[in-house]
Amino acid sequence: MDTLSQILDDIHLSGGEFRYVQAGAPWGYAFRTEGRAGFHLVLSGTAWLYLSEEEPIRLEPGDMAVIMNGRDHALMHERVESLPDALPDLVPGIQGHNRDLLRVGGNGSLTNALSARFRFDADLGRPLLAALPPVFVMRGISESPPDWLRVGLDFLALEGIGRPGHQAIINRLVGILFIECVRDYVEGLPEGTNNWLRALRDPALSPVLAAIHQDPAHPWTVPELASIACLSRSAFADRFGAVMGRPPLSYLAEHRMRLALWQLRHTQQPVCRIAEMVGYGSETAFSQAFKRIYGSSPSRYRQQRENDSTDSGISTPADAAPTAGQAG
C-alpha cells in the first residue's frame, strides 16, 4: 500500500455530510464544524472564505477549499472588513444528507456550491494535520472536471437517502474529494520543503513511512529501516531527521502511542493486547511509556474516558498531552 493511502486509512474518515447550496446576494453564513473537517466546492459564482487570523480567500468557480483542523469559518458574497456579529449557521442544513437544494440569501447574483464536513481521528491524523496549512485550495477543478470529481459529484446526486450502506458511500465519496485535495497539495510542494508531507514524495523516506504505518508492531531498528530506504544507516538517520524533525525511532514511538490511544478510546481490547498490537513486549513496558506521555496509566486513562461519557466536566490526560488531541 502506498504511504498516503496507509496514513488516510489510519485517520478513520467517517460521518460525511454534504449539501448543495444556492446563495443569492447579499448572503453570508457561518460554518461551525464542531471539530470536524470541512470543504466547500464553488460550482458557479464566487465566494469569500473567512477563517480567523487568516486573510480572506476569494473562491472562483471550480475552486475547492479544505479546512482540516476543525476550525469554524464563514463564507460571504463579498469581502468585508469585519464579519457580521450574527451569521446563520449552515451546518443544521447539512445534517441528514438532504439532497434538496438549500437556498440562502437574497435575490441578487447566485453562487452555487457543495459544502461538506466529516469526522476524523485527530490523534492518528496529527502528522498530516500538522503538515497541512489551516486552509488549502484546489483551483479550477470543476471548469474541466477530472474524472474522479465528475464521477463523485454524479454519484452524490444519484445516491438515494436511506438506502442500505448510504453512510458508507457518503464517507467514501467525501474521502475521495479530500484525498484528491491532499494529493494535489503534496504534488505542488516546492523542492526543499522539509515536512512530513514532503517525505511522502521522497523515494527513500516514503517506503519507510509506509512500512511503519503498515506494521507498527514490528520491532523496527534503524538498520532495518535504512535498508528499506536503500541508504546507509547514518545517511538514513540524517535524512529522516532533517525532513521529519525527529529520529526514526522517536517517530515510531509516537505513532505507536497514537494507535494505543485510539484503541483505548474506541475498543474494549485488554491493555495487554493493545501493548502487543503496538509493539511492546510487555504490558508493564507499554504502561510506563504511555504514562510518560499522557500522565496516567492506560487503564486509568480508559476509566477516565468512561467517566467522561457521563460527566463532561471531567478532563482526561490527553487534554494536556503534547501528542494527543480531540478526536473529530
Question: Topology, pairings included?
Answer:
Elements: H1 3-10, E1 14-24, E2 28-31, E3 37-44, E4 47-51, E5 57-59, E6 64-67, E7 73-76, H2 91-94, E8 102-105, E9 110-119, H3 126-131, E10 136-138, H4 147-158, H5 166-187, H6 196-199, H7 205-214, H8 222-229, H9 233-244, H10 248-266, H11 271-277, H12 283-294, H13 298-308
Parallel strand pairs: 1-8
Antiparallel strand pairs: 1-9, 2-7, 3-6, 3-9, 4-5, 4-7, 6-10
Number of strands: 10
The amount of helix comes to: 40-55%
Order of helices and strands: HEEEEEEEHEEHEHHHHHHHHHH
| Residue share in β-strands | 15-25%
- What is the CATH top level name of the largest domain? Mainly Beta
General description of the model:
With 328 residues, the protein is of the alpha+beta class. It folds into three domains: 3-187, Sandwich (Jelly Rolls), CATH 2.60.120.10; 202-245; 250-319, Homeodomain-like (Arc Repressor Mutant, subunit A, Orthogonal Bundle). It contains 13 helices and ten strands. A hairpin with a 5-residue loop joins strand 4 (47-51) and strand 5 (57-59). The two termini are 25 Å apart.
